[in-house]
Amino acid sequence: MKLAHYSDIHVTHFPLSGKPALKRLAAVASYSLAGRGRHFQGSDERIGKLLADVDAQAVDHALCTGDLTGVSTEAEFSRVAGLFGPRLEQPGKYTVIPGNHDRYVRGAEGLFEQHFGNLSEGGRFPFLKHVTSEVSVVAIDVARPTSLIDSSGLCGPKQREALLGILTDASLEGRFVVMAMHYGLLRAEGQRDARHHGLRDDLEVMELIDRDDVSLDLVLHGHMHRPYVVKTKKRTIINAGSATDLHVKGCGYNVYEIDPAAHRVRISRRTWNAGPGRYEAAPESPLNRELSTR
């Protein structure tokens, strides 16, 4: 089974194109002075080529772990939904979950669900999606609107309880199970993320997924734009990084070749080549490897 995983594509327009909000006003400085506008210049074109390249890999399923937009305006959501096009009508082939930039301000409530609800079970989290006869995706939503100086996420006790119920259900025993979320549980070096940037209940979520009675092979996420692989006590975590951030050397996405019976996965990295303007195989990427997941 082949699964594509990309994240943090950030269709990026000038931050004041939506309804005024203090956090969007602050984003102007990031866009104009801190380089974000340059990092995602031409993001619309790269997103279109990314989606086409994913389809060209003949994957069984494609997963996006959030941050479709820059500051969650209606214009950004409409644009990125337009780039997805007919894919929005194929929930069996595509799954998309929100990131913190898709819940950027309180005034953006419902925009993700309006445009991408069909690929996220109507935006009802957590959800379970059987993407092949042997592989399942469990998705949680840990993104939320926050203050000007906070970009942290939260799973919360209610969602953790529901997640535990899914992952300990007998129907998942023997299946290859992928958990999708936006925030990372650990940084590349294995330490926790900063309180203002990471998942507030990261310790509780890690304790949950490391339980002996949980059926789980991979945790896939984004949020941090440089890709990496790390492990908790028992679980393999893969951050796809940003697929479109020009500031990141090797920005791109992952293709996973999954052997469900053996609980093994082979990671192949594909990266953006600005010269010809396309995504290509990256045989020298340090992410390329084969792993046992249980």
CATH class type: Alpha Beta
Please give the number of β-strands.
13
Q: Which structural class fits the helix and strand makeup?
A: alpha/beta
Strand content bin: 15-25%
Number of H/I helices: 7
Q: What is the general shape?
A: globular
CATH architecture tag: 4-Layer Sandwich
Indicate the percent of residues in helices: 10-25%
Radius of gyration: 18 Å
The first-to-last residue Cα distance is: 17 Å
Order of helices and strands: EHHHEHEHEEHEHEEEEEEE
- Total domain count: 1
- Going by CATH, the homologous superfamily would be Metallo-dependent phosphatases
Low-pLDDT runs:
none
Main beta-sheet annotation: 7 strands, mixed
Give average pLDDT, whole number.
94
CATH topology: Purple Acid Phosphatase, chain A, domain 2
How do the helices and strands line up, and which of them pair or pack?
Blueprint: E1 2-6, H1 22-32, H2 36-39, H3 43-56, E2 61-64, H4 74-84, E3 94-96, H5 111-116, E4 127-130, E5 135-139, H6 157-167, E6 176-180, H7 202-209, E7 218-221, E8 228-231, E9 236-239, E10 252-259, E11 264-273, E12 278-281, E13 289-292
Parallel strand pairs: 1-2, 2-3, 5-6, 6-7, 7-9
Antiparallel strand pairs: 1-10, 4-5, 8-9, 10-11, 11-12, 11-13
Helix pairs in contact: 3-4
